[in-house]
Amino acid sequence: VASAGHHSSGLSGPGNFVAMNPEIAEGAVLVVNLEHTAQRNIAPARSLHEDGYREWTMDSHEAPIVAGITNLAPYLEGLVERGIERYGTNFVSGPNTMASGEGGTYRRLGVPVFTTMQGPPMYHTTGEVLEMVSTPGMERMARFMAFFVKEVSGASVAQLNPR
């Protein structure tokens, strides 16, 4: 399943995607949800603005990305580890079942949901603009996802969703 929905309900929401496309949803074996995956890392600067508020600085690398797999399938976890080693995506933490944002809505399908998400300081603010995107980070994520999708396409349903 791939959708361009958002957290909202309505035509573009993931809940309505499932309701309006049951034949697609019922045939799903894996949901992939990518959100905010190449935002540049920002941190408080050592300097202050004239009004006394702290300045922020943006570096050339992307902010940490959390990657969650709802069923913790060893095959999928192994792909994430291999992808990190190959492509240098900035995934943090160990295995977890996080499926926030659009990913959470798809849990009802009973198939694994793989979600990558960032929540840095500009997340869902007016500061989340195109200039915040790390071009190298976007390339790393694109290469990682191409690898992930290629490997998943050759896997059995039992590898994706061992029960």
Order of strands across the widest beta sheet? 1-6-4-5
Provide mean pLDDT, rounded: 86
Question: Describe the biggest sheet?
Answer: 4 strands, mixed
Helix segment tally: 6
For the record, the count of structural domains works out to 1
What does the radius of gyration come to?
17 Å
Question: Quick one: CATH superfamily?
Answer: Zn peptidases
Strands, total number: 6
**Helix-strand pattern:** HHEEEEHEHEHH
| Beta-strand residue fraction | 15-25%
Which shape, going by the Cα principal axes?
globular
CATH topology: Aminopeptidase
CATH architecture term: 3-Layer(aba) Sandwich
- Which structural class do you get from the secondary structure elements? alpha/beta
CATH class: Alpha Beta
> Which residues sit in consecutive blocks of at least 5 with pLDDT less than 50?
none
How helix-rich are the residues, as a percent range?
Answer: 25-40%
What does this structure look like?
- The structure is a single chain.
- The chain is an alpha/beta fold and 163 residues long.
- It has one domain: Zn peptidases (Aminopeptidase), CATH 3.40.630.10.
- It contains 6 helices and 6 strands, in the order ααββββαβαβαα.
- It has helices at residues 14-20, 22-26, 74-87, 102-105, 135-153, 157-160; strands at residues 31-35, 40-48, 54-62, 65-69, 91-92, 113-117.
- It has a 4-stranded mixed sheet. A two-stranded antiparallel ribbon has the order 2-3.
- Strand 4 (65-69), helix 3 and strand 5 (91-92) form a beta-alpha-beta unit.
- Helix 3 (74-87) packs antiparallel against helix 5.
- The longest helix is centred in the C-terminal third of the chain and has 19 residues, at 135-153.
- It starts with 13 loop residues before the first helix and ends with a helix.
- The mean pLDDT is 86.
